[in-house]
Amino acid sequence: MLRELSQLLDELHDGLIATEARGLPVQVQLANVEMTLPLELRPILRDGGCVLLADLPRSREVNTWNAMPSRLTVSWSCGGGEP
Fold first, then answer.
1. pTM of the full predicted structure?
2. Measured between alpha carbons, how far apart are the two ends of the chain, in Å?
3. Is the sign of the CA dihedral 22, 25, 27, 29 positive or negative?
C-alpha cells in the first residue's frame, strides 16, 4: 500500500524503537542504524503541492512491466555533537 514517504519512515523508526524496548533476552541499545531499502515511489499532486508516496516493492521481479525499484539509504543515530 503506497503511503506518504514520511509515514513509511516513521513506521521504520517506530520499529527500531520497539526492537530496542523489547530487549529480551538481551538488552539492545541502538546507537547508529543505516538501511538501504528498495522502494516503489510515486509523486502525486495534492492540495496544490507534490507528495511522494512510497512502499516496499510488491515484487522482486524486474522485467518490462516492473521497473527496477528506487533505493533509499536512511540513517538514524543517537544525539551527538556532530550534525
1. 0.72
2. 33
3. negative
